[in-house]
Amino acid sequence: MARPKKQRARATRHHARASRLSIAQAKELRTGKSKGGAPVFADETEMKKSLRQALVKAPYNVHDYYRPDGCAQQIARHAMFENCTLVVIVLNCLWMAIDTDNNPAAVLIDAPPVFQVAEHLFCTYFFIEITIRFLAFEYKCDCFRDFWFVFDFCLSLYMIAETWILSIVLVVADLRETDSLFSANVLRIIRMVKILRLTRMAKLLRSIPELGIVAKAIGAAGRSLLVIAAFCVMVLYVFALLMKQITDMVQEPPADSALTADFATVATSMNTLLLKSMFAESASFVYSLAAWHPVFWPFVVLFILITSVTMMYMLIGVMVNVVNSVAASEREGSTVSLIAQSLRQVMSKLGMDPDGPLSKQTVTDLLLDAEVAQFLYSLDVDSIVMVEMLDTFYEDIMEKEGRQMNFEDLVDGLLNLRGTNPATVQDVKGSIRILKTSFTKELSDLRKSLLGEINTLKIDLRDGGDLESSGSEHDAS
């Protein structure tokens, strides 16, 4: 009987080993990732981490690529220039509404004079603005590496082509809107293309951070929304099939003859369920179906509960979670950018190189600087604790990556020492490690001190014994 027990115990241990998660699987489970790719829902920790890594580096500023002297760069750097441009962009977008409501002409040369004057003024300003920014660059090829310059350049090029080039071509060719060349489709395309000017309002995202947070939240929630939308389509399809089959089985004609056409095919059934149930007040719709036959009522009510109630609130929850995650990551990003820029400025004043490896003495001198200490204190970071933990930081970096501390490691360490950070298991392990290191160091120092005292005592005792023996010999003689 003992042999089967051993075999069962061995099999149990084998099953336990096989059922354990590997370290990689545990990390995937903790972060919400799978082998399929990125997590479905936005992860606030990952967003903060990626944003911190991006912002700890020297921030991009297009002014760094401008000429050091000259009239164009001086105008382009001025805040008033950018503010005036934003005002003109807003006015241009508002003017588009006035133009759409009151300008019947599709081409500019046939428009009333007030609309022609306004369009030429807007085109002139944007042409001057993009020209000043182009002349401000020290190396002209750098302008095409700046996203906002390329964006504005394309829009300005389109506006010049529509306002000036097209008008000149039409005047030279002596063409008017009433000519046979301008068919209805051509005029419709010309009117629709004008909507492209509204893309200039994207520049407002740079000036109003809240708009940028909302836009980033929508982008971050894209995958989650697509998953939920796909599930909604599946629900629509299943219930459309069900409703179509029920309508085929029910022999009684409905009181509302339109219901028969609403569920004639699976596609029309999906359309009916989507428009009349999911996106509208559904009471009359349910009453009509229930009046036709009571068998419809439970299925329609169940569909409304799944889609209009459950799915809609789920979408709201996802959006709230994503907006909260994006807002938290943006706050983290502003803090990281502030710390990185301030430390770089102080290091430049002290003659330190932020792009190279940082020695312990360099970091200590930096953190004990009065300006840096006061700045870090305002962010709830204790620079003294950072100085005391430098040995631990250097040991961790050397063990994990085999190199010295750099500027990114310094900023990351300061951010991790904020008093507002929630305590984690890693923090507890780090505290225990620091206590063990401090205790070991104190014990070693105490041991050295005791050994020194013992050696001193031995020497004193030896010297005392030698003096006593020499004194006794002298007395004997």
UniProtKB/TrEMBL annotation:
SUPFAM superfamilies reported in the protein's UniProt record: Voltage-gated potassium channels
Major localisation: membrane
Membrane-crossing residue ranges in chain numbering: 80-98, 118-136, 148-173, 225-243, 295-316
Coiled-coil zones: none
Membrane association type: Multi-pass membrane protein
Domain Ion transport: 79-328
Gene3D superfamilies: 1.10.287.70, Voltage-gated potassium channels. Chain C
A cellular component term, taken from the record's GO annotations: voltage-gated sodium channel complex
The protein's name: CACNA1A protein
Compartments where located: Membrane
Domain of life: Eukaryota
Keywords, sorted A to Z: Membrane, Transmembrane, Transmembrane helix
GO function term, MF aspect, one: voltage-gated sodium channel activity
